[in-house]
Design brief:
- It is found in: Cell membrane; Endomembrane system.
- Its main location: membrane.
- InterPro entries: ATP_synth_b/b'su_bac/chlpt (IPR002146), ATP_synthase_B_chain (IPR050059).
- Belongs to the ATPase B chain family.
- This protein is mainly α.
- Helices cover about 95% and strands about 0% of the residues.
- The chain is built from 1 helix and no strands.
- The protein has one helix spanning about 5-135.
- The longest helix is centred in the middle third of the chain and has 132 residues, at about 5-135.
- It is rod-shaped, with a radius of gyration of 58 Å.
- About 0% of the residues are buried.
- The model has no long low-confidence stretch (mean pLDDT about 90).
Length: about 140
């Protein structure tokens, strides 16, 4: 059975002394370490947030520069296509002009040769007809 006497006071005093000693030797240093660790963690989190904000800003700048470069490349490509189409039209027009000139020259030459052939045929048609008639009739036609 528990009896209330002077040992209870002694136990209470022992408990208080133990609390004071543990507070000085154990609890305060642990609280100090925990608060330092919390401060270090909060500083690291702040640094991480700053780095993340910096990275986000740089990514936005990079995306903007990439977008600008794409726009410039598209504009340059469109300009080059336009210049190529203009050059193509110019070359085609020149080639068509040369082809038309060459075609006129060929037509003139063919017309000239046809006229010469027609003249030769007109000149030789009478004698050729006489030769054919002589062979068919078997006698000389006058």
């Amino acid at each position: 059975m528990i009896s209330v006497d002077w040992t209870l006071g002694l136990q209470f005093l022992n408990f208080i002394i133990l609390l004071v000693v543990l507070n000085k030797l154990l609890y305060r240093p642990i609280k100090k370490i925990i608060s330092e660790r919390a401060e270090t963690i909060s500083d690291s989190l702040a640094t991480a947030k700053n780095l993340e904000a910096d990275i986000n800003e740089k990514m936005q700048r990079y995306q903007q520069q990439l977008s600008d470069a794409k726009i410039l490349a598209n504009n340059e490509r469109n300009n080059l296509k336009k210049a190529a189409h203009e050059e193509e039209a110019k070359v085609l027009l020149e080639a068509q002009g040369k082809a038309a000139t060459r075609m006129q020259a060929i037509k003139a030459q063919v017309g000239k040769e046809a006229a010469q052939a027609s003249e030769i045929l007109k000149n030789g048609a009478g004698s050729l007809a006489g030769q054919i008639a002589t062979r068919i009739l078997g006698r000389e036609v006058a």
